[in-house]
Amino acid sequence: MTGGKTVLVPNQETFEALSDMGIEITTTGGAKFGGKGAKFTVTGGIVGEAGKDTIEHKGGLLFSRDEDGAVKVSNFTAVLGEKKGKLFAKSGGAQFAFLKLDLSEAEQSGVPGSISIEGAEASLTKQSAAVFSEAFAAEFRRGVPVGELNIEAQFG
Following DSSP, what letter does each residue of 44-95 receive, concatenated? Predict the structure, then answer.
């Protein structure tokens, strides 16, 4: 991959629930919140065989609450199959599966030199639920909807 962007369009109910818990979400490392959601720059990756693509990103998200710790996830790598995928992230020096991606209803297209995915449903993995539960002393569960991922990536 030589460029592009990925936008995480937040699930409104989930982000409102986080706000009600006093958890603030900000971008880090070059990521930015815009009108549609959090935007991350594509920095690399490979178009693999049998529908296994990887797309690397810079930037991240910081989840924080005044009286508690924080969870920073960054340097995302999307590993995509035909119908499902995962978004891996680094946090505290370790990489883990941050989001499960359901591509079964997503619009996928590609012209020579690019990949486009619109509407990949993103939800918490068991690992990310455990990280958030520990950091914020609250119960987070696998499968909580986080939003939709929209990917536009170029390769050459």
Answer: EEE--GGG-EEEEEE-EEEEE-TTS-EEEEEEEEEEE-SSEEEEEEEETTEE
